[in-house]
UniProtKB/TrEMBL annotation:
Gene Ontology molecular function: helicase activity
Name of the protein described by the UniProt record: P-loop containing nucleoside triphosphate hydrolase protein
Start and end residues of each ZNFX1 domain: 156-261
Sequence ranges of Basic and acidic residues compositional bias: 1161-1173
DNA2/NAM7 helicase helicase domain: residues covered: 340-721
Keywords: ATP-binding, Helicase, Hydrolase, Nucleotide-binding
Pfam families: AAA_11, AAA_12, ZNFX1
């Protein structure tokens, strides 16, 4: 009908000129609209408000704050800072009019009193600031008291770098930075920068002149970037720093000392501190609950306005009831058909209908599952104009896991932050990747383009300004000195003309004179200055890798995400800086004397002996003037960099408002608070809320937020404080908002059915949760939760010992004998068919973790099949089939350290699904003295394991699970062996102490002791004796390739025509056993005579007693828990021990059993190779295909688990 009509698409600003005689319909696409709320947020943050002094604190700590002096410069002499404590119980009240002025709040700001809000926000700010800064302040104080000390004097808590010199500046998109070189002489070690927590991007460092050493001067800087290639890997190393514009330094000759505090990370708190200050200038929703602790929680306004909801995404319709339009406030379904249990449905109702919803989820009860179902319902009822739902978690792993579930039913989501390890689903949805994948027009009126243009102009000005410090082979430009007013025109002219006269008289080289008159005027007084410090010649040992560097790198990447720019390297104009030339200092010549000399207009009349000092004076004055101009331009440049960031947020707002879900960490929320505020979100859901400090949760309360949902468990890990004193009851800073709300009577729901642990493991949690946790039927199913192989039905126990603990170089606790016992059990389990990835070794101490990693690296049994070794604090939210818990503490003083914290104990006890084995000093834990009013949780746990408490949950088979020996059961003979010492593991090969009565495929009897793997994997070690074509008898072992020892040349004999049925030649290929079953562990538990072939590549433990530290010798110092790092080196080492073996005589792991004396006739064996000679093990044949023999339990994990 409209065939003559042409449809035209274009931007609204385009002028269309249709062809004559043709009708044209113009469809105009409006350009993206600028949301001014982003810049309004930053402008409002600068608005002055009345209140406490905390509102005036700068973003980066000042030198006075770090040096602990007041603003007038006098020493405060206060070793303690007056901090208002947290308030776990009761409402917050005003500090009183005597020391605080009322804040000017919007009259509609909140139902809570303005004075109490200021008191609450101020206290949270001061506590967080103290936690972020105190350790650095104390580090500076220690260095000030001991200025000549080296790093070793500070027990690894302080990084100390001397000979720090400015060597360049960078105009980056984030602001002006300087590059410095520094020396590691006080460190006393070579640094593995890629595995070190030193100088992490975003961390604070403090510089002081080497002559001052914090007596009067300090400069606080932020690590701008830590590029390893081309910077940290140089000698001397280099690093980029951000410094306040009015404190920037340029002089390359000034020597500084740089100090960092290595335990904290200021950048993680920086944006939260700014958010707390900003909240005094905006409406504070939910203050009636958070501040006033009002227990009556109403429904959010958006639910009151639209109470009808479609619940069919989580509830199943039936013939009696449908759930498309449910009035959530009046007619919530009583007993709907759903996959959720009753406690989960109650939690779901609270999450959908209360503006402050608190959900407690004990271990394994499905916290994440309930959160996902709530999000599913919210999205099912999402309207086109609704703002995105905000999701936040404490860790990157948790938010990625949550978003991965959301991605199954919603594609419009974005992940803020740059440290997502989930590359298939989450990585493509990071803000940076979404931004790169979409082509958008520039936003009219956006700050970004104009700011970038001004920054480019300033770069040109920097080049001109700093040209006197450009590395060259000539002295200062005398005309430049004239331009800066340091020389008069007549002085400059006489300098030039005098140099010409010297050339004409042939008293100097014409090339030198043309280069600069100063080369003639100063003659031999001029000294060349190298552009950078000379390389240092020292042989330091390598520093041990930081075990926590991966977690810190996540924080680093979260705060310096790729959303901004690559945080490893600053991009932008780089200007190297150098002095080029100087002169020797003349003693006794003052600045006043030099000024008198410069009154002489003829420069050649200045005495030659004084000219060097004159040059030094001119050089210093020039640098002072350059510094003044540089600071002014840097300040303006940084302002434009700030506007560029605002402009980037304005562009990102257009992308984010089209999404339905936005996810980030709680740290990321603070960083992107301005951007999120512009989106006007109504719903914020925070997982892991109970292990997050209160302040980061508080700043999520944007003015537009109507509903805050907190999901967590305050019985598990509490928030972490860098300053341990703040965790004391008088401050209680480690009490989360989640826990504080529950303790103050705010209603919450608790999930009740656990889907993780078998009952005999779950019962151990009774002292913490009582009888509130029930078992889901899935954990009672032996098909889903089978017995642990080789343990004879003992799936949990406490192995008690009295082996003494020790301290490592970093003063962390470790227990070597206990660690060897734990690794021995891990080897035993692997021999019995358990994959290493299905075993987690937990410990409370990094020192023990380091030692465990060493033992695992030295184990020939576990190469390529290592268990995971982690600390308890980093394992909340995780689980595994089998957990081995190393408690470490064992002393005569009754000290138990971290074991005294019930929250940590709760996490440690609740990670295992099928098998849980605890190693520790039971007597110490049982008899320890507790504080008044504190219960001894370990005593109750040990009573349960001993079978004296919780009788109804006690296992019917061998009820007592508290031993001073570890009972293991042979799957072949049913024989139980008692393992009481690490050396006892050497008596078993995964089975028992009986001799193997089986025969090898060749017909010879097996010489090993009882083992759970097939004989096809055992090479025969008896003499062959086969007559060879040459007429001689083969003197090789039966399992080796035949060759004649008498004939020359010695070479393998072609046995093609002489097949030996018993000979199993190894061709270098990994293969499955022909006799092993391919059933899963489930079948293994049902029929214990079936062995996995994967166990064939696992010999018995070579654990030694504490007096035999042999295991540690072959281990590389690099303590990485990474197979790809350790395995190639170990394999190379082991292969080098086998150069003398015949071609084709590949060795399997069971050969180790003979060479370690494990065989029944090992004493009569010829050519015995000692374990020591082999460097800790022999060649290990790993059969990758056997991984299919172990059930892939990862596929069995569901949200319900």
């Amino acid at each position: 009908m409209n065939e003559g009509l042409t449809e035209r698409f274009g931007r609204s600003r385009r002028v269309f000129r249709p062809e004559p005689g043709r009708d044209v319909a113009e469809v105009c696409i409006q350009p993206p609209q600028l949301n001014l709320k982003v810049r309004e947020y930053f402008e409002d943050a600068k608005r002055a408000v009345e209140g406490g002094s905390w509102l005036l604190r700068p973003e980066i700590p000042s030198a006075a704050e770090i040096l602990d002096i007041d603003e007038t410069g006098s020493d405060s002499s206060s070793t303690c800072v007056e901090i208002v404590p947290n308030k776990p119980k009761g409402a917050w009240e005003s500090k009183g009019t005597s020391n605080v002025t009322a804040l000017t709040f919007d009259p509609n700001a909140s139902e809570a009193d303005g004075h109490s809000i200021e008191a609450y926000l101020g206290a949270q700010y001061e506590l967080l600031r103290e936690d972020a800064v105190r350790m650095l302040r104390e580090a500076v104080s220690l260095v000030r008291v001991t200025p000549d000390a080296k790093e070793d004097a500070f027990n690894g808590k302080i990084g100390l770098y001397e000979k720090v010199h400015v060597c360049g500046m960078i105009c980056s998109g984030r602001g002006v930075a300087i590059r410095v070189t520094f020396s590691l002489s006080r460190v006393g070690k070579q640094i593995r920068w890629e595995q070190s927590k030193r100088l992490i991007t975003g961390g604070l460092v403090v510089l002081t002149p080497a002559k001052d050493m914090f007596q009067s001067k300090a400069i606080v800087a932020t690590v701008a970037a830590r590029p390893i290639s081309g910077a940290l890997d140089r000698n001397p190393p280099e690093i980029d720093l951000f410094i306040r514009a009015d404190e920037l330094e340029l002089d390359p000759t000034v020597e500084w000392v740089m100090v960092e505090e290595r335990q904290g990370f200021y950048e993680a708190h920086r944006h939260t501190l700014m958010g707390l200050q900003k909240m005094t200038r905006e409406r504070f929703p939910l203050a009636e609950h958070i501040v006033e602790v009002n227990p009556t929680v109403l429904s959010p306004q958006h639910v009151v306005d639209n109470p009808l909801a479609d619940l069919t995404s989580v509830l199943r319709n039936n013939r009696h009831e449908t759930y498309e339009k449910i009035h959530m406030l009046k007619h919530w379904p009583a007993q709907p058909s759903s996959d959720m249990d009753a406690s989960q449905l109650a939690a779901l109702r609270r999450m959908l209908t209360k503006k402050l919803a608190i959900i407690q989820g004990p271990p394994g009860c499905g916290k994440t599952y309930v959160s996902v179902q709530a999000i599913r319902v919210m999205l099912a009822n999402h309207k086109p104009k609704d703002p995105p739902i905000i999701l936040a978690c404490q860790t990157n792993h948790a938010i990625d896991q949550l978003l991965r579930h959301v991605a199954e039913f919603e594609k419009d989501f974005v992940r803020l932050g740059g440290m997502s390890k989930e590359k298939e689903v989450i990585k493509p949805r990071t803000l940076y990747e979404v931004r790169q994948s979409e082509s958008r027009d520039n936003v009219a009126g956006c700050f970004k383009q104009n700011a970038r243009r001004k920054m480019k102009d300033l770069e040109k000005e920097f080049i001109l300004l700093l040209s006197p410090l450009e590395p060259t082979k000539i002295p200062l430009d005398f005309r430049m000195l004239e331009k800066f007013g340091l020389l008069t025109p007549k002085q400059a002219d006489t300098l030039e003309s005098g140099a010409s006269e010297w050339v004409q008289d042939k008293k100097t080289n014409v090339t030198d004179a043309r280069t600069s008159p100063f080369t003639v005027w100063l003659t031999k007084t001029l000294i060349a200055v190298p552009p950078k410090q000379k390389p240092e010649l020292y042989e330091f040992p390598l520093e041990e890798a930081d075990l926590g560097f991966e977690q810190l790198k996540e924080l680093e990447a979260e705060n310096m995400a790729k959303d901004d720019e690559d945080f490893d390297t600053l991009r932008g104009l780089r200007l190297p800086l150098a002095d080029n030339f100087t002169c020797r200092k003349v003693t006794g010549v003052t600045a006043a004397k030099v000024k008198d000399l410069l009154k002489q207009q003829d420069m050649w009349k200045i005495p030659e002996a004084m000219r060097g000092e004159v040059y030094r004076y001119l050089q210093g004055e020039l640098k002072n003037q350059l510094l003044t101009g540089f600071r002014e331009k840097a300040k303006f440049f940084n302002e434009q960099a700030g506007k560029r960031r605002i402009g980037q947020f304005e562009e990102d707002e257009i992308i984010l408002k089209e999404q339905k879900v936005i996810g980030m960490t709680t740290t990321g929320f603070s960083k992107y608070r301005a951007l999120l505020s512009a989106l006007q979100p109504k719903i914020v859901l925070i997982e892991e809320a109970a292990e997050t400090l209160e302040a980061p949760v508080t700043v999520t309360c944007l003015a537009s937020v109507q509903q805050l949902i907190l999901v967590g468990d305050h019985k598990q890990l509490r928030p972490h404080c860098h300053v341990k004193a703040l965790e004391a009851p008088e401050y209680s800073f480690n009490i989360s908002l989640f826990e504080r709300m529950i303790e103050n009577g705010i209603d919450f729901d608790m999930l009740a059915k656990q889907r993780r642990m078998i009952p005999e493991i779950r019962r151990i949690l009774y002292p913490i949760y009582g009888d509130k946790i029930k078992d889901h039927p899935s954990v009672l199913d032996s098909a889903k939760r089978p017995n642990v192989p080789g343990m004879g039905g003992i799936n949990s126990c406490f192995f008690s010992h009295d082996w003494p603990e020790q301290r490592d170089d970093q003063m962390s606790a470790l227990n070597k004998s206990e660690a060897e016992m734990v690794v021995g059990m891990a080897e035993y389990l692997v021999c019995n068919g358990v994959a290493g990835r299905e075993i987690t070794i937990l410990t409370f101490y990094n020192g023990q973790r380091r030692y465990l990693l060493r033992l695992l690296g030295a184990s020939p049994v576990l190469v390529g099949n290592k268990p995971v070794v982690v600390t308890v604090d980093s394992y909340q939210g995780e689980e595994n089939r089998i957990v081995l818990l190393s408690l470490v503490r064992s002393n005569e003083h009754g000290q138990v350290g971290f074991l005294d914290v019930d929250n940590r104990v709760c996490v440690a006890l609740s990670r295992a699904q099928c098998g849980f084995y605890i190693f520790g000093n039971g007597a110490l834990l049982y008899d320890r003295k507790t504080k008044k009013g504190q219960k001894n949780t370990w005593r109750a746990i040990l009573d349960i394991l001993a079978g004296t408490k919780q009788i109804k949950d006690r296992p019917t088979f061998q009820p007592t699970r508290l031993f001073n020996h570890l009972p293991i059961t042979c799957s072949n003979h049913g024989t139980q062996t008692q393992v009481a010492d690490p050396s006892d593991w050497q008596t078993v090969n995964g089975g028992c102490t009986r001799e193997c009565d089986g025969h090898l495929p060749c017909g010879h009897p097996c010489l090993l002791k009882c083992h759970p793997y097939g004989h096809d994997e055992v090479p025969c070690q008896q003499q062959c004796g086969k007559m060879l074509p040459c007429g001689h008898a083969c003197e090789k072992n039966c399992g080796d390739v035949c060759s004649c020892a008498q004939c020359k040349p010695k070479r393998p004999v072609d046995t093609t025509n002489f097949p030996r049925k018993h000979h199993v030649e190894y061709d270098g290929q990994e293969r499955l056993s022909r006799t092993s079953s391919t059933e899963s562990w489930k079948l293994f538990a049902k029929e214990e005579n079936v062995r996995y072939n994967i166990a064939a590549s696992a010999p018995p433990s070579n654990n030694t007693s504490p007096q035999k530290p042999l295991r540690l010798e072959p281990v590389d110092e690099k303590l990485l828990d990474l197979d790809e790092e350790v395995t190639p080196r170990l394999s190379k080492l082991l292969m080098s021990q086998m150069d003398g073996t015949s071609e084709g005589s590949g060795r399997t792991i069971t050969q180790n059993l003979y060479e370690r004396g494990g065989g029944a006739h090992s004493d009569d064996r010829k050519g015995k190779m000692k374990h020591e000679e082999c460097g800790g093990g022999n060649l290990i044949v790993v059969d990758e295909e056997t991984k299919s023999h172990a059930k892939d339990w990862s596929k069995e994990h569901s949200l319900l688990d």
